[in-house]
Amino acid sequence: MPFSRFASFLCLLSFLLLLNNAVGVDPLFHFCTGSEKFIDNGPYETNLNKLMDSLQILAPPTGFGKASVGLNADRSNGLALCRPDVSNTDCKACVTEASTEILKRCPDYKAAIIWYDNCLLKYSNMDFFGQVDHQKFYSFNEKNVSNPASFNQKTRELLSRLVEEAFVAPNMYATGEVDLEESKKLYGLVQCTRDLSTIDCKQCLDDAVSEVPNCCDGKEGGRVATGSCNIRYETYPFVKS
Predict the structure, then answer these.
(1) Predicted model pTM
(2) Using an 8 Å Cβ cutoff, are 113 and 227 in contact?
(3) Hey, which residues does 226 pair with through a beta bridge?
């Protein structure tokens, strides 16, 4: 194999490995929203593709980007959010993967949302900026804790404290930890999309925390993610240093 072709192969292999590490194998969840669909190769699809390209550029520098492309019925609105502990490179890789994957999973849909561990991406033909999105999903650790009452109380206290920090923070994000029994710790993360007002961010996070007993009661870890905010707790450190 000529050197130039071999070097190109190594570059491609390195990028694919980086993409896999940054994104993970599969998205956490997705919704194809509503029933409206666009015409293949029509103006909405053109605007949507331009929107995806824009979000891949806008999101990585700060971890958040939003944009609109087109006019009237063909206007496509979207945003992408990355965790602040994720590098710019990993953020871009996640948003790039999300942009491709959501169009595969929701072909021709005018609105959709997809979550990964490192990022969230959503788009719609409706102007949703600044509005709390109540679409949500749960996930939890299969392991049960030995003392649910005490653990659940610690979880509520930690997440509630983080909510108070996040909704007034510039990046609407907070992480923290609290001591448990036997020298163990509980780790938490809360985050809002930055198109929300501080009041709406707090309401979104408070609502997510209130869902924890419904999804994750007595579990060692859990996550509640909506289209506007997400919360997570685990008994192991999951935030990148």
Answers:
(1) 0.88
(2) yes
(3) 136
Distance CA 132, CA 192 (A): 10
Give residue 168's identity as a one-letter amino acid code.
V
- Dihedral-angle region of residue 172 (phi above 0 means left; psi in -120 to 50 means alpha; beta otherwise): left
Given a contact cutoff of 8 angstroms between Cβ atoms, the answer to whether 33 and 108 are in contact is no
Closest among 185, 167, 195 to 239, alpha carbons compared:
185
Q: Is the pLDDT of residue 226 over 70?
A: yes
Tokens representing 219 are 């579990």
> d(Cα 38, Cα 40) in Å, to the nearest integer?
6
Specify whether the CB–CB gap between 126 and 77 falls below 8 A.
yes
Three-state secondary structure call for residue 154: helix
Q: How far apart are CA 46 and CA 83, in angstroms?
A: 29
Gap between the Cα atoms of 121 and 188, Å rounded = 22
Walk me through the domains of the chain, giving residue ranges and CATH numbers.
3-124 (3.30.430.20), 136-234 (3.30.430.20)
Q: Which residue, 186, 24, 187, is CA-closest to 119?
A: 24
Chain segment 70-95, per-residue pLDDT in tens:
999 999 999 999 999 999 999 999 99
